[in-house]
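Support reply, case 0932

Customer input (verbatim):
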Amino acid sequence: MSDKKTLKKKKKTNPNLRLIKNGDVEEPKKKRRLRKHGERSEKIRFGKTKRSLILLTVFLSLFLVLGGGYFYIINNYKVTTVHVDGSVHYTNEEIMEMVMGGRFGDNSLFLSLKYRDKGIEGVPFIETMDVDIEAKDTIRITVYEKALAGYVRYLGRYVYFDKDGIVVETSLEETAGIPQVTGLSFDHVILHEPLPVDKPELFDEILNITQQLAKYYLTADRIYFNSAYEVTLYFGEAKIALGKNEDIDEKIMKLQYILPDLLGKSGTLDMREYSEDTKTYSFEQD
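Our regenerated output:
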């Protein structure tokens, strides 16, 4: 006997061999493949059509909703009444153009979103502007102007300064209600820095004068300081000599009763000497 083991070869099966049981009827392969392919195409075509109809319906619905909402907002939130408070340098029409300019600027809903929790800054002579929506058709614009004490002329421009003498703005246009200050000496002007005058404390005096004038609804055209820093107020052709910074408040309080008689006249009212007992002041016509 041989020690080698005898290996039996395994007979390979034909991969194309198919077993058909008795009673089964084989369906032709080509016909079966054609039928399945046709069923699949019909299902795909039906699925695409259905999805397209759904998408079209959704799109049309969204279009109608958005379009209806757009026309409702445009027609029902149109601003017809505007209140402007606190503006002196600009007219109400100019303020409205700043706030309501551009597309949808006359729509209160748009304005409420645009100016929510913020004001309008960066406008010359204005600290900020607040926009409040009071109704669908009504808004209120509150203007907070910079505190201007006066202005000086320098190199053909109007140089405006505040109570501390800080240069706030420069402009080619004069602002009504802000007095011109003359008699101050300076050789340069820098925006947002103090006017370089010899006596900086004069700005406190200027502010006090403008505040006292505003208190009695008086508007001086010019505040003049001579070399001794004595004050003269100009109202048209009428000049009011107030003198040094003494009893200014009392002098301006009395001036409110005297000034109406001086309007249209040219001359100087001498109020440098003041006392509570003084009843009349001399007026020297030019």
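We compared this against your earlier run and they match. Two observations from our side: The CA atoms of residues 37 and 269 lie 113 Å apart. The chain has a mean pLDDT of 80. Please reopen the case if you see a mismatch on your end.
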